[in-house]
Structures are given as structure tokens and as C-alpha cells.
Amino acid sequence: MHSRTRRQHRAVRPDARIAVDDDCVHVWQLPLEATDAELSRHRDVLSEAEIARATRFHRDIERHRYTIAHGLLRDVLNRYCAIPPAQLEFATDRGGKPLLSSAGCPPLSFNLSHSGGRMLLAIADGCPIGVDIEASDRRIDPLKLARRYFFGGEVEDIEAAPDDERHTRFFQYWVAKEATVKAAGLGLGYPLDALRVHFSAKRDVAQVESLQPERLANDWMVRMVPCDPGWHAAVVRRGLQWNWRPMPRPL
Q1: Residue 207 and residue 236: Cα distance in Å, rounded?
Q2: Tens digits of per-residue pLDDT, 119-137?
Q3: What's the CATH fold of domain 132-246?
């Protein structure tokens, strides 16, 4: 049976809390690696529901990565809320998007994505946000997938890229769209060809054009998050006047 009695998990001091400005999104990019002792510590702070979810993964590495990601989520939120990680409570909105529901927390919003051995976590002041991180898979056919899921102009953009850049360009669109759908709380069933992504010349920023404005507004902005080779990531928030801040890896 799951127990949290083995260790005391204390909150940071209220005067040591991290504050997030209202025009900024904090982005944590963390590896999903842990020693046996660290894995046990992460497991200790999870809820019964999270433990049950972890056990449904068939492979050890998937169970461990889920456990680490959600343990780190609680560790990071502790730095903003000054509530012990094991005591943080969560709910979901109508689209299934997780929300922080602990009493006494400052207004905070968050969004988590993990792929392979890495996670991306965004924290904001309560406004809707979304993130997505993906590991590039060189075995996929970017044109085939783009033609299935993307808007015509986006497919043409990928087709026009040199052969060695098509994977990168495909994943830029993919993470931008996935992060937008998550930010808006639309759920995994929302069609990716119902929104068009317009990248800037530097491809570090993009604006979203919704083809279903009754479900998705047109004021979402995407900012690409630099990653190591083989990874692609994006963070999304409504409005134009905001930026993001990379947070240090050590916890």
C-alpha cells in the first residue's frame, strides 16, 4: 500500500517562493532520470490516483518516467505554492486539462508534457497555457503525416523544405498545434487541421489562425522553446504581450 510516512516532504518557506510575473511564462525543461532513491522519493509524493495510473504502464521505463515527471511537477509547484508536494491537490476542467486546486495557493496555471526521457513544464499566473515536447523520430514520414493532419499551406511549407530539414519543420508545426490544443483545453480529439500556424521568418514565434473560432479563439501565440538536437518544444499562451523564461534545471 502506498504510504508517505517514510519521509517528511516540507514546503519551501513562503518568503522563498518563486513568483511569476503576469506577462511571463516560466518553462522548466527537465530530464526524466533518477536514481533508485530519487525514484522512491518521487513515488512517495504521488496521490493514489497517480500511483494507479503509473502501474497501468506495462514497461518499467514508462512507469518510472511517469513517476519522475509527476514527482517533479509536485516539486516544482511546491516552489511556487509553499505547499508540501504530497499535499498538492489537482482537479480537471471540462476538457480534462489538469488544474491546481489546493486551498491557499496563489493563482497559478501549469501544463506538463513529457516524451521519451524529457519533460517540459510551464507555470503562469493563472492564464491558460500549453506546452508540448516531442522527440524526433527519423523513421516517420513527415510528408505523409503532414498531409493527413495539417492545413494545406503548412503541408506546402514542409514540402518546400530541403530533405534534411523536413523532420524539423514537421515537428515545429506538430508541437505548436499540440500545445495550442492543450492550452485551450480542447482535448486530444480536436482536429489539428482546424488551426493554421503562421511562423515568423526566424520560426521562433508563431500566431494561430483558428478555422473554428467558435471553439478556438484567434489570439493564441506560440513561442518555440530551444532544445537539444533531436527534440522540439513549444509553449502557448493567449495574447501578444508575453514572453517566456527558461528556469534552471537543478531542483
Answers
A1: 10
A2: 999 999 999 999 999 998 7
A3: Ribosomal Protein L22; Chain A (3.90.470)
